[in-house]
Amino acid sequence: MDNHFGEESDELLMLSFKAGEDKAFEELVKRYKTKLFNYIYKYISDVERSEEITQEVFIRIYRSRERYKIKAKFSTFIYRIALNLAFNEVRNRNRRKTDLHNEFDDKVFDDKIREHNTPEKIYEKKEIEHIVNREISNLSSKYKDVILLCDIEGLSYKEVAQILDISIGTVQSRLSRGRVRLKQRLENVLNIK
């Protein structure tokens, strides 16, 4: 079986999918499924809803394939959809005024456990990761958005600016301020002096 789609750019895959190549869509799902799930989970802290929202992102892309045009990188397009859905989820939760705390789930993290790690070290790493994710979640959305997109997802300032519809300077400013706030929160929680 020839899988030439593995070498194509995201944008060309989307155009191939638009032209009727379902395998191109499968390749996009393969490339983005885990990244989007992790991004959404870090935004909303709910494993089941993160899975549902990740599926909804791909459903929306599937349904809107006929209207797709290359205006920006595909990653900008897909993260914008994910951000909107995650933001709506948080907003709807706040409206319902329910407190939805979920247990920490191991599958969210791509920890590569090495043989020399002791169970205590593994637990400690996961506990710290959980605390960092919780503190990112507690930041205001303007800081949380840029930290998740730049620092966690590794997107460029330009891509983040397009996703959030703000200037690159605003991305840099929010990222700097958000990092300072996150550092302060972590110092307090972890008792680091």
What does the model show?
By secondary structure, the chain is mostly helical. It is 70% helix and 0% strand. It contains eight helices and no strands. Helix 1 (10-18) packs across helix 2 (22-44) and helix 3 packs across helix 4. The model is unreliable at 97-115 (pLDDT under 50).
For this entry, give a set of tags.
193 residues; mainly alpha; 0% strand
What coarse outline follows from CA principal-axis ratios?
globular
Intertermini distance = 58 Å
Helix run count = 8
Order of helices and strands: HHHHHHHH
Structural class: mainly alpha
Layout of helices and strands:
Elements: H1 10-18, H2 22-44, H3 47-63, H4 74-96, H5 119-138, H6 141-152, H7 157-164, H8 168-190
What is shown here, in short?
This protein is mostly helical and 193 residues long. Helices cover 70% and strands 0% of the residues.
